[in-house]
Amino acid sequence: MFFHFRHQFPQLNAYWDKYREFQQQLEVPAKTILLEEGKISQRYIYIEKGCVRTYFNKNGEEKTIQFFFEEEGLSSLDSFVNNVPSQFTIETVEPAVLYLMDKKHVLQLIEELSHEPDFIHMMLKMSVKRQTHYANEFVSFIRDTPEERYQHLLQDRPHIIQRIPQHYIASYLGVSTVHLSRIKSKLAKGKTRF
């Protein structure tokens, strides 16, 4: 669960090695469903290679929530912690190499990590980073136009533009693929004012 913070907390390397036997390594193609909306999350996912997205279904239309890349981890946290149905689906966007760890081993790992002197600091850092990201996304979705949100992607997270299919980006921005094409065309011509 915390292995994407290994570089900042070298003491996690020993836990990575210890818990490797409890992690199922998967090599899967694009469009592999890792968790279905409405199911209860029982595994934590760490991405070694590839890209994963989360989305929900609204009246038969997929609405992309977020993208995750190498050295990031995820689960449907509310579902994972509270044993409630997931509000979204988790699916690979690209062929991926993943590590999955069952909930009982994650809880065991947390228990062991709780004895580490920097555990609280690590948890706070991880929580703040995720909360800040989601708060910024939420504010941007309310405050900014789709054009501005696309411009933010170009400036702050160009890897999304480079690696993610256009229809997923459009869904993430809350626009149609036609509208996204217009946005890109305007930006290419330099007509959009921000």
TrEMBL record:
It comes from the Bacteria. PROSITE patterns: CNMP_BINDING_3. SUPFAM superfamilies: cAMP-binding domain-like (SSF51206). Residues 34-110 form the Cyclic nucleotide-binding domain. It holds the Pfam family cNMP_binding. This is Crp/Fnr family transcriptional regulator. It comes from Chitinophaga agri.
